[in-house]
Specification:
Low-confidence stretches: none
Shape: elongated
Structural class: alpha+beta
Number of helices: 6
Helix content: 40-55%
Distance between the termini: 38 Å
Strand order of the largest sheet: 4-8-9-7-6-5
Number of strands: 9
Radius of gyration: 24 Å
Mean pLDDT: 84
């Protein structure tokens, strides 16, 4: 989940920094449409409260993202993902209120900013749908894509099918969204390992290594079973050799 942490920290710092510049330093030229306005128009915008509204919106977004970031460390489910949803709601509401305070040109700019924010949130929520592919090599197997890794057959102690998975104790570095679980987790009885689950439905392929595990499945049980048999055969062949 490093990429989400990086995005979150960057956005928090950015929104806090710009809110400081606007609310404390009063650098209103950072606000869309302000610099291109005439002096009289700028004064009207200040009197209408547009610059402070813009600064407060950035501050509110920074606070929302900070809360989501902190809750993530308390292992609250979907904390970061939820903070993006709340951020989008805040941006929609406060941008809509701000547009009533400014001229038509600035309204168009604010709508553009709002659409860019919406695109950012869509990208974040689309990431769990990016495919992971199982690739079986001569001496190892690899799961490509987000959180992908390669495991050598010599390190594998067991491969089996589970109908029910142990309880997830901690999500240390991963994404759980829309029934998909990707990344590093700590499971009861198994310890720390990686999940590549595209569905909450069984069966689940469980590969245990000397010091960890990897669990995977697909959206279709028959494809999961096919992958299991292919991987089991490759492990067996490597063991026999």
């Amino acid at each position: 989940m490093e990429y989400l942490y990086g995005i979150q920290i960057f956005l928090i710092l950015m929104f806090f920094f710009f809110s400081y510049l606007i609310l404390i330093r009063k650098n209103y030229y950072l606000i869309s449409g302000f610099k291109s306005s005439t002096a009289a128009e700028q004064q009207k915008m200040i009197q209408a409260g547009y610059p402070r509204a813009a600064g407060k919106m950035m501050l509110h977004v920074a606070i929302v993202l900070t809360i989501g970031f902190l809750l993530q460390f308390l292992h609250v489910p979907y904390a970061i993902e939820g903070s993006y949803v709340v951020m989008l709601i805040v941006l929609f509401i406060e941008t809509f209120l701000m547009m009533k305070k400014v001229k038509r040109k600035s309204q168009k700019i604010n709508k553009t900013v709002l659409m860019l924010s919406l695109i950012l949130v869509i990208i974040v929520f689309a990431i769990p749908f990016m495919p992971n592919t199982l690739e079986i090599n001569r001496d190892s197997f690899e799961i490509s894509g987000l959180y992908g890794e390669e495991w050598t057959f010599s390190d594998i102690e067991d491969i089996s099918l589970y109908d029910v998975l142990p309880e997830v104790m901690i999500r240390t570095n991963g994404i759980s969204l829309f029934g998909k679980h990707l990344g590093k987790y700590h499971l009861e009885g198994l310890g720390a390992g990686k999940l590549f689950l595209r569905s909450n439905e069984a069966p689940f392929i469980v590969v245990r290594t000397k010091d960890s595990f990897v669990i995977m499945n697909t959206n279709q049980s028959d494809k999961t079973l096919e992958s299991y048999h292919q991987l089991e055969q490759a492990i067996q062949q490597n063991t026999d050799n």
